[in-house]
Amino acid sequence: MRRVFIAASALVCAAVFAVVAAPASASSTSNFEATFQFHYGHQNGDPCSAGFTGTVAGYGSATGTCTVTVTPIPGSSCVQLTISSTITLADGSTLSLESTATSCAVGGSGSAPGSSVSYGNPISLLGTYTITSGTGVFAGGSGGGTLIDYFAGDVQVVELVGTIALP
Fold first, then answer.
1. Run of H or E residues at 101
2. Predicted local confidence at residue 156, as pLDDT
3. Where are the domains of the chain?
4. Nearest Cα residue to 64 out of 79, 46, 44, 82
5. Residues 114 and 85 sit within 8 Å (Cβ to Cβ)
6. I want to staple 80 with a disulfide (CB 3.0 to 4.6 A). Which of 71, 101, 119, 130 is the partner?
7. Are the C-beta atoms of 78 and 88 separated by less than 8 Å?
8. By C-alpha distance, which of 37, 39, 36 is closest to 57?
9. What are phi and psi of 27, to 5 degrees?
10. Is the pTM of this model over 0.85?
11. Is residue 113 very low, low, confident or very high in pLDDT (cuts 50, 70, 90)?
């Protein structure tokens, strides 16, 4: 009887160990970096509609489009932004992001004489992004990080730095 009990206990322990030790579906987390640019060409273009061009490190050239909701921050020259964007690689893979950020004029440029009618005043934007979905090489992707955006003169540069987990 004791042998049966020991054998049964060994089987139960082995079964529990097998369940605990069984690997879960593995995902791979890696650094994610992307840089995009938009050249205004001395016009008040909309980079979100026209699209940004750039690169995603490790994946190559890409384009980006977005929609932005702007909410003024009372008592400041800054605004709060909610941004939905899509990055598309040359192979058609897409990555969808949701971001929140604060955008402000750099230094005293927002209150400089003529700033409301002049072109190319410097603006900085700092926020965070979350990956909400992906297709192709980004299918099942998740993650997030920091969004940094600089605008001055004719050029706007957007940088995304964070992590991406892929199944």
1. strand 94-105
2. 87
3. 26-166
4. 46
5. no
6. 71
7. no
8. 36
9. -125, 155
10. no
11. low
What kind of architecture, by CATH, is found in domain 26-166?
Beta Barrel (2.40)
CB 142, CB 122: distance < 8 Å: no
The two three-digit tokens of residue 141, written as one number: 């992707």
What tokens were used for 12?
């139960």
Average pLDDT, the chain: 79
Per-residue b/e over 24-48, b at no fewer than 16 CB within 10 Å?
eeeeeeeebebbbebebeeeeeebb
Which residue bears the tokens 């600089």?
Answer: 150
Q: Which of 85, 91, 64 is nearest to 127 (CA)?
A: 85
β-bridge partners, 134: 95
What residues form DSSP beta bridges with 149? 125, 158
How many degrees, rounded to 5, is the angle at CA 129 between CA 49 and CA 43?
25
Per DSSP bridges, beta strands 155-166 and 28-39 are antiparallel
**Is 82 buried (19+), middle (13-18) or exposed (0-12) by CB count in 10 A?**
middle
Amino acid at 70: V
Q: Is residue 106 over pLDDT 50? A: yes
Q: Is the pLDDT of residue 5 over 90?
A: no
Integer CA distances (angstroms), 11 to 2, 3, 15, 16, in order: 14, 12, 6, 9
